[in-house]
Amino acid sequence: MDSFLAEQTRCPVVFNSGCTGLGKEMDKMCQTRDLPMGEEVELPFWLVPKLFEQNMVGPKMPDCFDERVWQVVEAEPRNVPLKDFNPHFFEFGARFNELLRDEELHENLEKAFVARYSKLLVGAALSTSEFKERHLLSKEEERLLDSGRDSMKAFHDWKYATTEKLTVAHTVKANKKRRAGGAYGSNQRRAMGDVTNKT
Questions:
Q1: Torsion region of 168: left, alpha or beta (phi above 0 gives left; psi -120 to 50 gives alpha)
Q2: Is the model's pLDDT at 67 over the cut of 60?
Q3: pLDDT tens-place string over residues 144-167
Q4: What is the DSSP string of 60-71?
Q5: Helices 89-100, 103-116: crossing angle, 10 deg rounding
Q6: What distance lies between CA 98 and its chain's CA centroid?
Q7: What Rg, from alpha-carbon coordinates, does the chain have?
Q8: Is the distance from CB of 11 to CB of 51 less than 8 angstroms?
Q9: How far, in Å, CA of 179 to CA of 196, rounded?
Q10: Which of 93, 115, 132, 151 has the fewest beta carbons closer than 10 A?
Q11: In what order do the strands lie in the sheet with 10-15?
Q12: Is 69 within 8 Å of 83 (Cβ atoms)?
């Protein structure tokens, strides 16, 4: 579901060729029946890859990945509400960059994820108290947080609530006795040999 919603994000593109009879369909602000070449419009992202593959459009960097956004994220990774920029910030970023293959965008996404994971999510996932900063999280971060907390809860439930005790398996006990018995017999034979040699 989140992947589907991420692909609904509107993405700015510039048309490399005109669109006959699709002016209003592609851009509601278009005053003509045809969309002229060079026109910039916003389309749902799911529509962009096919048009890009056919060289009909050139995608532009969305506002949610603007340079000013990265400056804020880098300065205060713990306190930035990524959800306000895009609810599916990392999911959409990864899919968009599969198309654009922009090295700087890739690095910015990776640095932002690592910084927020270490400074915001790890402590929250290990804590049992209420997390009051959920409004700062993107959808992907919320999933990570919930998964981490569910895992910690399951571990604590097992650790403190179980009445079962770990015991040594019967076969392990039998092997230990066998080895102990073999060592004792070997020592006895060695001792008897020493006595015989002295006499």
A1: beta
A2: yes
A3: 878 877 777 787 777 777 555 556
A4: ---GGG-HHHHH
A5: 160
A6: 16
A7: 32
A8: no
A9: 26
A10: 132
A11: 40-44, 10-15, 57-59
A12: no
- Side chain identity at residue 152, one-letter code: M
Please report, as a single letter, which amino acid is at residue 190: R
CB-based contacts of 22, cutoff 8 Å, min separation 6:
34, 35
Q: Are residues 15 and 79 in the same domain?
A: no
> Residue 184: which domain range?
169-199
Tens of pLDDT, residue by residue over 109-139, are 999 988 888 777 676 656 666 777 788 888 8
Q: In residues, how long is the chain?
A: 199
Q: 13 in helix, strand or coil?
A: strand
Q: Under a CB-based contact definition with an 8 Å cutoff, are residues 89 and 64 in contact?
A: yes
- CATH number of the domain where residue 84 is located: 1.20.58.2050
pLDDT at res. 77: 81
Single-letter code of the amino acid located at 100: L
